[in-house]
Amino acid sequence: AQKVTQAQTEISVVEKEDVTLDCVYETRDTTYYLFWYKQPPSGELVFLIRRNSFDEQNEISGRYSWNFQKSTSSFNFTITASQVVDSAVYFCALSEYGTSGSRLTFGEGTQLTVNP
Amino acid sequence: DAGVIQSPRHEVTEMGQEVTLRCKPISGHNSLFWYRQTMMRGLELLIYFNNNVPIDDSGMPEDRFSAKMPNASFSTLKIQPSEPRDSAVYFCASSPDPAVGYNEQFFGPGTRLTVL
Fold this sequence. Notes:
The structure holds two protein chains of two kinds. By secondary structure, chain A is mostly beta strands. In chain A, 0% of the residues lie in helices and 53% in strands. In chain A, strands 2, 5, 6, 10, 11 and 12 form a six-stranded mixed β-sheet that branches. Chain A has a four-stranded antiparallel β-sheet with strand order 3-9-8-7, with no helix packed on it. A two-stranded antiparallel ribbon of chain A has the order 1-4. In chain A, a hairpin with a 2-residue loop joins strand 7 (59-61) and strand 8 (64-69). Chain B is mostly beta strands. In chain B, strand 5 (42-50) and strand 6 form a beta hairpin. Chain B is globular, with a radius of gyration of 13 Å.
């Protein structure tokens, strides 16, 4: 069975600090996909990034970067120079590859608070 | 483009009443998902459909919950009779192609249900 663990329940930082959100996953599949979603205080879930299990290249998008390491089954998310608007709950999710569809298993989420 | 549309956005009802939540997926998307989010249990997948057919309803908590997708542009989640422990935010999500695992899911704004 798939499992996603986000061990950090809450993180609080001061604006402009860098912060890393951890995600560890378990799966028996060799082909799978990993996602990060953001849930701001307004409540909607916003897609941030997708990675497949064959692509371990790190990715950077502005102040956001992602570090995927299959050897440790981790897919960590770093926000550089955090801002108050980054305050949200962040979810890591895992999808199996298969004909049954893109079912996602979500982690418990990490509440990030960026203080001014 | 319109995103996933859910109605109502808020619902307050009394225990024992029937509740119907509605969802319109993004046009052209072939998979639809219903989630429930609570503080205690996080994000839980209740049921999902591929091409209007229910694929996995193992997350539906009990027989009081039922979901239908009569056509590609509409789905309902019904709770009858409702109980206070059903109070949660219910999200609907859609994704383009059920045959691949890399499709991100696009979430609606959610319905906040309160059962008194």
